């Protein structure tokens, strides 16, 4: 019986900064231009890696003073970027728990923001262990965080199924010997797990 390792954002929990930013922009393209201009995803990854949110917002606002109010808006209203649980994947998680599979979480997530929504998702209690990037100050696809995960699981990579929506994270996991599944939808994940005779 393999251990199953889940990413959180984009797999079990919906996250999209656009959900927060839509009210600040008259049209989708201007919002996309803003996110590209400030290199949002790279900046956000530094908070996932452990940088304090207030420090990250201050640094970016100094680089883009004309966008300062929008940058601080993300820090102040971060919870609006969470779109809710992804029902189909949660059902898969619950099924795996009933089948007694060892379940683990490995997520790029700020240690500051995770507690804000932690209690809103009771299914997170199904995990036998969780590693948050913001707590260990490492982020996927850095191999060091996968090594930490394997120590937590107590098994070699070949005995672990790793589920993530990021191609870069999947590539790194494959290179380390995980049975890695690129998540596209709950239906696709169910098919992948059935093909492995896990579901």
Can you describe this structure?
By secondary structure, this protein is an alpha/beta fold. It folds into 2 domains: about 5-15 and about 85-195, Rossmann fold; about 15-80. Helix content is about 50%, strand content about 15%. It has helices at about 15-20, 30-35, 40-50, 55-65, 70-75, 85-100, 115, 135, 145-155, 165-175, 185-195, and strands at about 5, 15, 80-85, 105, 130, 160-165, 180. Strands 5-4-1-6-7 form a 5-stranded parallel β-sheet, sandwiched between helices. It has a two-stranded antiparallel sheet with strand order 2-3. Helix 4 packs antiparallel against helix 5 and helix 6 runs parallel beside helix 11. The longest helix is centred in the middle third of the chain and has 12 residues, at about 85-100. The protein is globular and about 55 Å long. The mean pLDDT is about 95.
Q: What fraction, in percent, of the residue positions are helical? A: 40-55%
Q: In CATH's first tier, which class of the largest domain applies?
A: Alpha Beta
Fill in the CATH topology of the largest domain: Rossmann fold
> Quick one: overall form?
globular
**Strand numbers in spatial order across the main sheet:** 5-4-1-6-7
What is the CATH homology-level superfamily of the largest domain? HAD superfamily/HAD-like
* Distance linking N and C termini: 12 Å
> Beta-strand level of the residues, as a percent range?
5-15%
Give the total of domains.
Answer: 2
Low-confidence stretches: none
What's the number of extended β-strand segments?
A: 7
Report the major sheet.
5 strands, parallel
> Can you name the CATH architecture of the largest domain?
3-Layer(aba) Sandwich
Oligomer: single chain
Order of helices and strands: EEHHHHHEHEHEHHEHEH
Kindly report the average pLDDT value.
Answer: 97
Structural class: alpha/beta
What is Rg?
A: 18 Å
Number of helices: 11
């Amino acid at each position: 019986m393999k251990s199953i390792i889940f990413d959180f954002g984009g797999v079990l929990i919906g996250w999209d900064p656009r959900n927060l930013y839509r009210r600040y922009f008259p049209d989708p393209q201007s919002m996309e231009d803003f996110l590209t201009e400030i290199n949002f995803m790279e900046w956000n990854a530094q908070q996932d890696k452990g940088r304090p949110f207030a420090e990250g917002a201050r640094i970016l606002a100094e680089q883009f003073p004309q966008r300062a109010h929008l940058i601080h808006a993300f820090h102040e209203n971060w919870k609006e970027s969470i779109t809710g649980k992804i029902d189909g994947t949660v059902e898969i998680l619950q099924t795996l728990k009933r089948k007694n599979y060892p379940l683990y979480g490995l997520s790029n997530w700020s240690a500051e923001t995770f507690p804000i929504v932690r209690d809103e998702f009771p299914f997170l209690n199904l995990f036998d262990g969780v590693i948050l990037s913001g707590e260990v100050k490492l982020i996927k696809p850095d191999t060091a965080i996968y090594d930490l995960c394997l120590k937590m699981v107590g098994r070699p990579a070949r005995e672990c199924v790793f589920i993530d929506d990021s191609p870069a994270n999947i590539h790194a996991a494959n290179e380390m010997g995980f049975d890695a599944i690129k998540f596209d939808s709950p239906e696709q994940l169910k098919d992948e797990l059935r093909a492995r005779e896990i579901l």
